[in-house]
């Protein structure tokens, strides 16, 4: 019996390290949010069915301490090791980041595990340890919640300390101009475009990468804000009502830009009304003399804007009071357009960005820079210098193949604009996509529509992953798209390999539209 228990313990320790790491990784990708992680567990229950079987087997071992049950436990633990090692190799896009929070959670999880083993050993004896070890390995999908709940007071205290320090640094800089930037999509591009325009005249700080959460903004202020900075461009992201207000309460923006309102993160917002309300939390936080810049092309923004007075619209598809683009000319080399300002100024601009859909964000950036003291003439050269943001319609030349990398994420409006941009190229136009996610009950509907747009614009449609392929396939076929040119692959690498083998005359243009994170 002792030898059997020792064998179980050795196997369980290795299996525990793998199952704990995997579930911690997924919990991190789900933002440490209990509701999102529970939703993920339900959607991906089949992926971890082995843990459910192991849990039942552990309970059975407590009742029936037979060698045959122990043998089944050995086999199950070995399978756990093989499966979770394979999952670790598969989930390679974004590795588990061992932040201080993750280290604290893993330590707490281990302490809970050791405590349970010690209690069973002392009060029930070693004969029950085999069953308990099997249960602990299999319960890692749940113990992650326990560790997070135990650590919550510590995490809240640490976070509040950092937030107070960031607020102190901002209070010491009353002259700093803070511009909040939010939107369902396009906010990161707007941030970097605006940085390019302003940095010729001002010392500008931007939130790096996707530091658009309260803690990301806090970290930016604490680590990067210098006494020499004139302007702070603060990107504000949200997945729930109230999260934009939380960032605004931290930084107190002087001005705000609402780039877009659309069906993004519907799984956590539940309705377009909630998304609209959340984005306008930025507008509600501005001072009386603050300027609110609004995308006039967006119907949801237009609808809500009537409630606000100090607003400045910018347009690319329409004309109205504010800043508007006209005479837009798009080519494979870039885009040209004329911007007319409310004061009567007008200038012709050229930029390297491809696609008419990029014009709206650049016009918005021009509007903000103009109101912050730069003339349209001063902005002509900076606009030429604007570069595509990484993984957002970024063109990469590879001999006879051009990759158009729009893999950061995808939304119904952006995906349509991306394939329409692909359509303007002369050559073999290939779309590679896993489809769109986080669209709640409308996910299938939006992916079906995406398939119809793609059918009109592409020569080949290569889908990655079977989960979301079906509605895109149906959408493409409804437009009469050839079945032999619409294929489904398990991995991006397989789709890319096939795309390179496609024969035909002309240059190949491969659009990478969206790239799902590991938890999808």
Word description of this protein:
With about 525 residues, this protein is an alpha/beta fold. About 50% of the residues lie in helices and about 15% in strands. The chain is built from 20 helices and 15 strands. The strands form two sheets. Strands 2-3-1-4-5-6-7-8-9 form a nine-stranded mixed β-sheet, with helices on both faces. α3 packs antiparallel against α6, α5 (about 100-125) packs antiparallel against α7 (about 140-170) and α18 packs across α19. The longest helix has about 30 residues, at about 140-170. The radius of gyration is 27 Å and the shape is globular.
Q: Considering DSSP H and I runs of 4 or more, what fraction of the residues is helical?
A: 40-55%
Low-confidence stretches: none
The largest β sheet comes out as: 9 strands, mixed
Strand content: 15-25%
Measure the end-to-end span: 42 Å
Give the count of helical stretches: 20
Number of beta-strand segments: 15
User: How many structural domains in the coordinates?
Assistant: 3
What class do helices, strands and sheet pairing give? alpha/beta
Q: Quote the CATH topology of the largest domain.
A: UDP-N-acetylmuramoyl-L-alanine:D-glutamate ligase
CATH superfamily of the largest domain: Mur-like, catalytic domain
Mean pLDDT: 89
State the CATH architecture of the largest domain.
3-Layer(aba) Sandwich
User: What is the 3D shape?
Assistant: globular
**Alpha-carbon Rg, integer:** 27 Å
The neighbouring-strand order within the major sheet is 2-3-1-4-5-6-7-8-9
Mind telling me the CATH class of the largest domain?
Alpha Beta
């Amino acid at each position: 019996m002792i030898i059997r228990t020792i064998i179980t313990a050795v196997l369980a320790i290795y299996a525990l390290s793998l199952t704990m790491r995997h579930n911690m990784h997924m919990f991190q990708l789900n933002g440490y949010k209990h509701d999102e992680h529970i939703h993920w567990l339900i959607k991906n229950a089949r992926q971890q069915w082995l843990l459910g079987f192991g849990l039942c087997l552990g309970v059975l071992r407590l009742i029936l301490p037979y060698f045959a049950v122990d043998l089944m436990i050995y086999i199950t633990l070995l399978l756990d090791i093989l499966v979770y090692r394979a999952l670790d190799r598969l989930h390679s896009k974004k590795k588990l980041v061992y932040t201080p929070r993750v280290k604290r959670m893993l330590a707490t999880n281990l302490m809970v595990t050791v405590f349970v083993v010690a209690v069973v050993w002392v009060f029930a004896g070693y004969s029950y340890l085999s069953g308990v070890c099997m249960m602990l390995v299999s319960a890692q999908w749940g113990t992650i919640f326990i560790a997070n709940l135990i650590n919550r007071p510590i995490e809240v205290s640490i976070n509040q300390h950092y937030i107070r320090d960031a607020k102190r640094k901002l209070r010491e800089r009353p002259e700093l101009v803070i511009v909040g930037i939010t939107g369902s999509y396009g906010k990161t591009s707007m941030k970097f475009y605006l940085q390019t325009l302003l940095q010729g005249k001002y010392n500008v700080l931007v939130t790096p990468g996707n530091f658009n959460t309260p803690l990301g903004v806090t970290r930016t202020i604490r680590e990067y804000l210098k006494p020499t900075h004139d302007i702070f461009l603060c990107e504000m992201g949200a997945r729930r009502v109230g999260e934009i207000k939380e960032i605004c309460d931290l930084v107190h923006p002087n001005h705000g830009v609402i780039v877009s309102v659309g069906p993004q993160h519907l799984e956590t917002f539940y309705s377009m009304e909630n998304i609209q309300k959340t984005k306008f939390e930025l507008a509600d936080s501005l001072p009386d003399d603050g300027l609110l810049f609004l995308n006039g092309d967006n119907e949801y923004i237009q609808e809500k804007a009537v409630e606000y007075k100090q607003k400045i619209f910018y347009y690319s598809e329409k004309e109205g009071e504010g800043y508007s683009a006209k005479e837009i000319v798009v080519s494979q080399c870039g885009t040209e357009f004329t911007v007319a300002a409310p004061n009567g100024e007008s200038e012709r601009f050229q930029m390297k960005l491809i696609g008419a859909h990029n014009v709206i964000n650049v016009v918005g950036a021009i509007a903000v820079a103009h109101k912050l003291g730069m003339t349209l003439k001063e902005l002509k050269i900076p606009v030429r210098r604007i570069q595509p943001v990484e993984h957002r319609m970024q063109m990469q030349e590879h001999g006879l193949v051009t990759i158009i990398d729009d893999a950061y994420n995808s939304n119904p409006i952006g995906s349509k604009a991306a394939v329409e941009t692909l359509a303007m190229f002369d050559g073999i136009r290939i779309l590679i996509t896993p489809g769109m996610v986080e669209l709640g009950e409308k996910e299938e509907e939006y992916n079906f529509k995406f398939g119809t747009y793609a059918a009109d614009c592409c020569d080949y449609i290569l889908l990655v992953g079977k989960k979301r392929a079906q509605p895109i396939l149906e959408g493409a076929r409804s437009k009469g798209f050839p079945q032999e040119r619409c294929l489904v692959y398990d991995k991006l690498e397989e789709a890319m390999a096939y795309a390179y083998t496609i024969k035909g005359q002309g240059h190949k243009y491969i659009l990478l539209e969206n790239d799902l994170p590991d938890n999808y």
